[in-house]
Amino acid sequence: MSKLTVNKIGIIARYDSQEIIQETKKLIKFLENENIETTINKETAEKIGVKGTPIKQMTDCDLVITVGGDGTILRTFHELPQQIPVVGINKGEVGFLTDIEMDNYKKELKKIIKEFKVDKRTRLEVNINQGEKLPPATNEVVILTSEPAKMLKLRVLVDGKEVEKFGADGIIIATPTGSTAYSMSAGGPIVDPKVEAFLLVPIAPYKLSARSIVIPSKSNIEIELIRKGKHAKVIVDGQKTKKVEEGDIITFKEAENPALFVKVEGQDFYSKIKEKLM
Amino acid sequence: MSKLTVNKIGIIARYDSQEIIQETKKLIKFLENENIETTINKETAEKIGVKGTPIKQMTDCDLVITVGGDGTILRTFHELPQQIPVVGINKGEVGFLTDIEMDNYKKELKKIIKEFKVDKRTRLEVNINQGEKLPPATNEVVILTSEPAKMLKLRVLVDGKEVEKFGADGIIIATPTGSTAYSMSAGGPIVDPKVEAFLLVPIAPYKLSARSIVIPSKSNIEIELIRKGKHAKVIVDGQKTKKVEEGDIITFKEAENPALFVKVEGQDFYSKIKEKLM
Amino acid sequence: MSKLTVNKIGIIARYDSQEIIQETKKLIKFLENENIETTINKETAEKIGVKGTPIKQMTDCDLVITVGGDGTILRTFHELPQQIPVVGINKGEVGFLTDIEMDNYKKELKKIIKEFKVDKRTRLEVNINQGEKLPPATNEVVILTSEPAKMLKLRVLVDGKEVEKFGADGIIIATPTGSTAYSMSAGGPIVDPKVEAFLLVPIAPYKLSARSIVIPSKSNIEIELIRKGKHAKVIVDGQKTKKVEEGDIITFKEAENPALFVKVEGQDFYSKIKEKLM
Amino acid sequence: MSKLTVNKIGIIARYDSQEIIQETKKLIKFLENENIETTINKETAEKIGVKGTPIKQMTDCDLVITVGGDGTILRTFHELPQQIPVVGINKGEVGFLTDIEMDNYKKELKKIIKEFKVDKRTRLEVNINQGEKLPPATNEVVILTSEPAKMLKLRVLVDGKEVEKFGADGIIIATPTGSTAYSMSAGGPIVDPKVEAFLLVPIAPYKLSARSIVIPSKSNIEIELIRKGKHAKVIVDGQKTKKVEEGDIITFKEAENPALFVKVEGQDFYSKIKEKLM
């Protein structure tokens, strides 16, 4: 966690809410007053009436600020062209990834502009049939039946060894960061982000004995759809969906590059759990 | 559980498997040899090359035999025009509703033709916005998000009183008969069919405290979708799907008519649990 | 739920807290001012310096008021000589059985003295080896290993039929009233008190497939300890403990007499769940 | 996992079963025929009628063979004076730690005598009030109420930070090796032994939201008993029990020395899960 300073900031804001757009205008003004150069994602920039930059071209930013909820952060990580630290201003529901509240972002951003540390979070690389790559997952990848109430049959291999075969609506492969998101709803344990592991959590398994499994992040995970005629979806971070079907093999391993989060004081993992879950 | 005898039998068989069609032919021959009049569902009859009867017109049958899995029985109950007892010959995967194995149906059917008892199973009546009625559910009704990993917000009322409000992928409303089906995969308890109750089981609830609730079968259950812009599906017995959306209220109560199952010796509830689940 | 009026009230208060004893004195004065005759349980009476009555002799009371927590109510029901309605003033932690808060009992008691309705709650009759009877359980009976981390082997029969055999730390047999108490901690569902059923909930079962089972309250339940050399405890409502061992059979059925709770406005089952659990 | 060879073997066998003592005699003869020097634990040696060695003095053995179940192995690791590799011959119930079946131990032992590899399994060091040390746990440490159905109040700190405070019957702190033992019965996830982590699993928590937590094995864990007047037990590997009470703080960290298991072909972690749990 090296200390870093800031000259130019990329701003990525939800553009489907008039309120967020207004707040984003004020945020830009605030940053300009702090002598920070800014650039805004194209869609939001248009609504504000300024010139924007596609996220994929935000290569010269030292930092990215998102304005929205966890979804905005997750999408940002899918599109960022390189390893840029991200911090989220929360303007959504309960968020585990957005560390700054809208009400008092000025104080926090002043500190960050001066100097900040980075928290590296492991991501999942997803590959379909050894070919098509999906964006790396910060939270989780879900494989889910396309026909609700008609279960899939899944074969799970870890490092080439069959771990289990079971019928279920689907399965979640989560990072520790994702252990407090969808994985938790499906009954998975909370995993400290410092643990080098991924989580396998079955969704509505028919076999009563199916359990969550915690495996080393260095593992190669393969999941094979083995039931005749079944269709499924692969969903990355609840944002990106890809159709798969019988015989397809989806593989997972640790992504080369982690997600970089700006560390915000008082926002450590266990404080968030206590505040948001208990 | 009155004793009944049989003159005419309706046969309803899966028609997407050549093997099942062949077995159905033999079954018809067997029943004719036993001096039982038979009629077959239209689709299967066509494949066999005889004249069939739409299920909705099987009004003069004393008994219906299904050939297939649990799905075939569930669909049969959705379409049967009146209260006719049903028995299933299993030609699928593990089944909780099909009580006769394909290998030795002759012995069982000979007994049933002579005399049989009926097991009445409570069903759920489903109504959307006090208007459209769906077929009564023998197992369960599932309300499920149409966008996986984007949760619904549900408000549950029992007899007009709000019981809970929570975010989840969906909710299951199950009969005791359905407690060993999809409800169980989602973590619901097993409910003896003699208990006069329905089960409410959340699917992937975000609130950690969401629990299964067992409520009297005489209750009126209302489930309201309260999140802006969300779409969902209502799925009856995994067979019939209906789209719903924000603001829709789905109501449930005990159906006037139960599902009538022919009682087969040795196939009581707890024997099945031991055999199929443990 | 018939309406009843009150002439004489039995008071049963915890006597291990000086604060509760002071409050009980005030309660007695309040009731005397309302022209209600009172009698107090012997132990508390002694601390106050008046003449008391053993609970078992409170035969001429129209109503019993407890002062304490859920434990005080549960013990009261174990000892009351006959069917007397009980209402609890809460002076403990979160309580599901105590319906009146200490802060404003006067208003509630004035209403109750004039007229009240009774809520009948099913209890469990517990019998060891067809001989010794334990007090009827309002919440639950727990069978638990005496040597933590050394599991019991249990055989469960419902109406003479074996339902399951499994290794576990123990098992809970709960009433619907008890479904929000210890049973819930062990993973059991919430059961509406109007459902005529009991709950079987395994405690730390070794078999991953062991599930909660909801069975009709008219059932006869037998639980047999089948592992060599193992000792266990039978605990009724967390209050009364009895040792059992290998070969012992503990039987359960609906108690002849329910527990009678005074109905307090606004304190229905679902309001409590929302307030205390969600 | 270095390769090792064998000159002297310590044998530690259950001595409460005549059958195991007979088998142990044969095992000694078999090893002598293989030109291996043996020594037997004192208690079993007495029953056989030879001179034995206290386990604590088996310092010159290259290998220890246990005869019994998982309990025998766990006790062996508590008493072994130094880092000696252990392999278990199973003569008990389903075992996750004993890798050789009684029926065909000769073949396996011949291979091991020639050469074997060692699997190092992380253990937990347990300390009460920064003073008394208990034996290091191979599977888990359980903190459990001494009065069943009367819950403890626990405060959990990880690296000095409060993670949660909750009421429960107890808590399990497990190693990955222990994740398939008692922890699993209490609802914990399965953790691959290659993951450098410990598991915190609540036992019958009153708070519905209490979850299993996976934390780095480098963490310092503190658990404080904070309820007035409550007594509890600390149980190491189901073998060693120590009483604790209100105000006591039990601390946990990775033990300096891991448990050394002889690797037996075909007995990897996932094979065992498939064979024993699914």
Detailed description of the structure:
The structure is a homotetramer of 278-residue chains. By secondary structure, chain A is an alpha+beta fold. Chain A has two domains: 3-122 and 258-276, 3-Layer(aba) Sandwich (Rossmann fold), CATH 3.40.50; 124-254, Tumour Suppressor Smad4, CATH 2.60.200.30. Chain A contains six helices and 20 strands. The first copy, chain A, has helices at 18-33, 42-48, 70-79, 105-114, 182-185, 269-276, and strands at residues 3-4, 8-13, 37-40, 63-68, 86-90, 100-101, 116-121, 124-128, 132-137, 140-145, 152-158, 161-174, 190-191, 197-205, 213-216, 221-225, 231-236, 240-245, 249-254, 259-262. In chain A, strands 8, 9, 10, 11, 12, 14, 15, 16, 17, 18 and 19 form an eleven-stranded antiparallel sheet that branches. In chain A, strands 3-2-4-5-6 form a five-stranded parallel sheet, sandwiched between helices. In chain A, strands 1-7-20 form a three-stranded antiparallel sheet. Chains in contact: A-B, A-C, A-D, B-C, B-D, C-D. At the A-D interface, strand 12, strand 13, strand 15 and helix 6 of A face strand 12, strand 13, strand 15 and helix 6 of D. Strand 15 of chain B pairs parallel with strand 13 (190-191) of chain C, so a sheet runs across the interface.
